[in-house]
Amino acid sequence: MWPITSQYLAFGRRFQRAVSPATDEATANEAVLSEFESRWSNSDMQLAMVPGKDALSGVNEHLQERYGVTVTPTAIIDAMKNDEVPREIKSLLVALDEFAQVRPGSRKG
Known about the structure:
The chain is mostly helical. 72% of the residues lie in helices and 0% in strands.
């Protein structure tokens, strides 16, 4: 939990500085930590708060210890079926593909 807490605190503090630069650092830290603890108390939110790299690292640690194998992001993507990919991800990939097709100086619209 501590690496996640420190990351959350760092990003939250950066956001606090941008929104309200005059806020005392201790006060901002207290607000960010309070928000973190509130979210962390919900097991569904815990999963949403864990960075993807850390989650995959934890899965790989377990798989390596138990089965002697690891998985890569590419292997996970290759194993997915079309109906398992969230609509938002599909939309993002389409938008990225369209963006990649645009040549400098030839903007659409």
